Amino acid sequence: MTSVWADLNQVEFSQGFLQAGPYRTRYLRAGTPGKPVLLLLHGVTGHAEAYVRNLRAHGEHFDTWAIDLIGHGYSAKPAHPLEIPHYLDQVRAFLDTIGAEKAYLSGESLGGWVTARFAQLNPDRVERIALNTMGGTMANPVVMERLYTLSTQAAEDPSWARVRARLEWLMADPALVTDDLVRTRQMIFQQPDWKMACEMNMALQQPDVRRRNMLSDDDLRAISCPALVIWTTKDPSGPVDEGRRIAGLIPDGRLAVIENAGHWPQYEQTAEFDRVHLDFLLGR
């Protein structure tokens, strides 16, 4: 059996909270201060543990921070619908708080959406970005409805079965949803304010809200930093062709395809993800 602790027990890391502007923000941190800053951003209804298997490898090269986005994990949970500008405010404030004028950003799903928009609007603050099975370019009603249903059901009743079903949506191999991972997320979903928070972070699954936050082709063309688009052969949110299209629109974009993974390649195929991700971030 694998567990979050098994993933971290050989890692020098810290966990804590920072006040990033108005947002109390939880983080996991690995690496040495003074190294380049790498910020890792998870997907919708996710949390920093999405990157527990990657902290050791990335901490060797970067001052690596995996944070809980607002409305998620154990970070602040604003009582209003969360749109991309709200997440951008948190990221900007977090970088300011840790004193990082520039950083490397990598995001999965919603985190990739936030990363791409941040890079577009703040080119002076970004070195390189990685967009991992990113959201923000598609509005597939079937995918949106499935994600909304699984998430809200687990918020209304954070039973073992419903939390597991939400996690299994992420994986190509449902066997990777261990009891430890279910319990880690179940504890988050059992917070008294989670039902409200889930409703707020599900705002981007509403068609009208999603449309006004989406990344256009011109938005992608405006990203000036080097960008790695990571897609998988079994991603439930969209086909590899979408990753290829995104990479083709970003002027300095490139595509890496990871086999036998779903929406969490950094967790499912850790060694391959770390290899292609670090090679890109380090300019190798």
Question: How is this structure best described in words?
Answer:
The chain is of the alpha/beta class and 284 residues long. It has helices at 4-8, 55-59, 84-97, 110-121, 141-156, 160-168, 179-189, 194-201, 207-213, 217-221, 240-249, 265-268, 270-281; strands spanning 13-20, 23-30, 37-41, 63-67, 103-108, 126-132, 227-232, 253-258. Helix 11 (240-249) links the parallel strand 7 and strand 8. The N and C termini lie far apart (34 Å).
- What structural class do the secondary elements suggest? alpha/beta
Order of helices and strands: HEEEHEHEHEHHHHHHEHEHH
Give the class-level CATH name: Alpha Beta
Number of strands: 8
Lateral arrangement of strands in the main beta sheet: 1-2-4-3-5-6-7-8
Kindly estimate the percentage of residues that lie in beta strands according to DSSP. 15-25%
User: CATH superfamily, called what?
Assistant: Alpha/Beta hydrolase fold, catalytic domain
> So what's the overall shape?
globular
Residue runs with pLDDT of under 50 for 5 or more positions:
none
The whole-number mean of residue pLDDT values reads: 96
